Amino acid sequence: MIWRACRAFTVLALFLTGCLLAAAPATAAASVLRVLAWPGYADSDVVKAFEARFHTTVEVTLVDSDEALWDKMHAGGTPHYDVLAANTAEIQRYTHEHMLAPLDLSQLPNTQRQLPRFQARAGIDGLTVAGKVYAIPFTYSSMGLIYDRKQVTVAPHSMAELWNPQYRGKVLDFNSAQHNFSFAALALGYRDPFRLSPAQTHDIALKLIDLRRNLLTYYNLPEEATAFFVQHKVALMFGNYGTQQLAQLRRAGADVGYVIPDEGALAWLDCWAMTSTAADRPLALAWINYMLEPDVSGLLTQRQGLANTLTPSPESNADAHLIWLRPVDDIQQREALWSKIVSGDLPGSFR
Hints:
Elements lengths: L1 H29 L1 E6 L6 H11 L2 E6 L3 H9 L8 E5 H9 L3 E2 L14 H4 L8 E2 L2 E2 L2 E7 L2 E4 L22 E4 L2 H11 L10 H14 L3 E5 L2 H10 L4 E3 L4 H9 L4 E4 L5 E11 L5 H11 L2 H11 L2 E2 L13 E3 L6 H12 L9
Parallel strand pairs: 1-2, 1-3, 9-10, 9-11, 13-15
Antiparallel strand pairs: 3-13, 4-13, 5-6, 7-13, 7-14, 8-11, 8-12
């Protein structure tokens, strides 16, 4: 009887040990928060403070374009990230693909710290669907023109200045299909840069081919643009990262100015969102709420020169000239044409 009892106890102990071992990987996996973001949004000290407070591990993956973010989210067919930062146009794409989860605002008390314009979420395209909130504004900037004051003595008034032959080989452009077609549409006077007719799309493609004559190169990251600008004495740049690039250039010693063109400037509003496959939703919500703490949002402005959603920005005076990004009508067509443009294809192939 004693032997049977001991044997039964041993079997039970082994069973319980097996259960604990089987559960261990799931517990470890749940303690990791996977973040997909842009440079400067999740600096190491900010991440470490979050990890210490919530006793977790954060894995940050950085992207340098909307296209790269889209590819990361679709790698393997299922998102492997818990939270991501994306502009409102991209948020709409992910929501349409059912890749985002609605947010419980009761778990995001720091949203009450935001400026009134950002608390009016229903009035910002892309944040809500059917009364549910899918994204929380985090930072924003216009995409204006940055110029070297020594070479461009009079502040430019139009995006068309990028094509000025005076700046041959001294122009920098951001490597993006969507934004290039949109800002070129503004330069050509088209009313809606996000909805283009076939004829308008063709004309813009030729216009962007023509821009190659003035280009030094295309850039992806703001740090890359700063290096090109300083080392090669660039005269004019399409500032995709706006005031973030302006701050970096000035720290690098460049004497630069920044303008919103008369035809207006594209502007992005980056938001935090939670994926529909988030492993630990309370932790994902805690991250979004943490990003809205004054000290964390303040670091974004101090280090990156970007506006945050808690305090007024000097750029607010130019809001009447900002054109918030929206989804484009045919993104695949823009990307296919852009690939040909950056590859150096001749105008005759764009028929």
